Amino acid sequence: MALSAAAAAKIAASVLTSEKLRKTVGWIIAAILSPLILLLVVVCSFMSGGADHNAAVLDLCYYGGMIAGSVPEAYRQHITDMQNSLAIVDSNVASVNAMAEDGSGLDSNRVKAVFYSLYFGEENPGTVGIEQFVDCFASYEERTHTWTDDNGTEHSETYTVAVPVSLETAYANIHSKMGVEITDAVRRNADEVYSRTHSGGDTFSGGYARGDGVSIELDVSAFADPTMKNNLDLVTYAENAWENGWGYVWGTYGSVLTDSLFASKLAQYPDGVGNYEDFIRQNWLGRRTTDCVGLIKGYGWLDTSTMSISYGINGMPDVGADGMYNNATVKGDMSTMPDTPGLAVWHSGHIGVYIGNGEVIEAMGTKYGVVKTQLSERSWTAWLQIPYINYISEAEATP
């Protein structure tokens, strides 16, 4: 289902009008027999072949870039349509996660990977019913909260909680609710896309430094203004996380990794956490942990009056790295980045905090934890002002 018959015919026609491209048919057929991230192979000849082509298109769809001039307009449109659709998927996942409890929301990268595998090549994938698609990954339960006020009067209210379902249940929901057949190829492709676009593994390169502390205490004594979320205090918070050797666990945001929290993340992310269970148990259990965007969200959710991190407070929504980037109104490519501590730096699926002096603190991956890196040595593609905090200068900070 990755490419409609009409779209495939139109692109194939463009290919076959070129003498040079006709000569590539042999290796295109060979590429079809290889494991693919994309189901679309007809246009391999416009970029590098096989897996390299598929990875290039995936990266374009996830975070943009320059498309080769030889690519037909129809194919350009497929890439643009998917870019726009993934942004809508992110937005709908954030809406579902706003109804989740204790940070146990949907894995945005997993949802996008399935959507990409199913709908790349469809004409106008944004019209397939993205809200309904995202809902296939959650069930909804009614809960009742009861409390007694100061006068002794009992009150109760009913509210709805979103609960993630297993991937197999999500696939079954997509089949029954949207009439889409989930083939083995779709499953394999979704797994390939997810593997490439979620962080937490051990594939990062470049130099990095780890802090040598082990404290789990949160310290705001050096905050410029504890009453207002701002870029300077985000830097201080990130530096504290680095100095105290915070670990990395997918889906966490600065809390101490207890046995119960670890168990919940194992169930929620059987790949991103489960694949590293032994390493996490040996290295991060009992310490504060976070994932890349969790480092930012943990600061946003820090209540400085109680020194606790509470899910979803202070106007900071539960969004992924890509959602943080998509929601930012002040951002640009790396060539335009100002030297402002507290900016975020981003590439598809990953985000870090720029602390000034050409350095970044990032929750790099499961086998690294929170580390300090050189801005120039990493593969960031864009910078952004985090849209849920204030940007102030040191002169504006409260004495």
Protein topology:
Elements: H1 5-16, H2 19-22, H3 25-32, H4 50-63, H5 73-97, H6 108-119, H7 130-135, E1 138-148, E2 154-164, H8 167-178, H9 184-197, E3 209-210, H10 231-243, E4 247-248, E5 253-256, H11 259-268, H12 277-283, E6 288-290, H13 292-300, E7 302-303, E8 308-309, H14 321-327, E9 331-333, E10 344-347, E11 350-356, E12 359-365, E13 369-374, E14 382-384
Parallel strand pairs: 4-6
Antiparallel strand pairs: 1-2, 3-13, 5-6, 7-8, 9-14, 10-11, 10-14, 11-12, 12-13
Give an account of the 3D structure:
With 399 residues, the protein is α+β, with helices and mostly antiparallel strands. It has two domains: 5-126 and 184-197, no CATH class; 209-396, endopeptidase domain like (from Nostoc punctiforme) (endopeptidase fold (from Nostoc punctiforme)). It is built from 14 helices and 14 strands. The termini are far apart. The model is unreliable at 1-51 (pLDDT under 50).
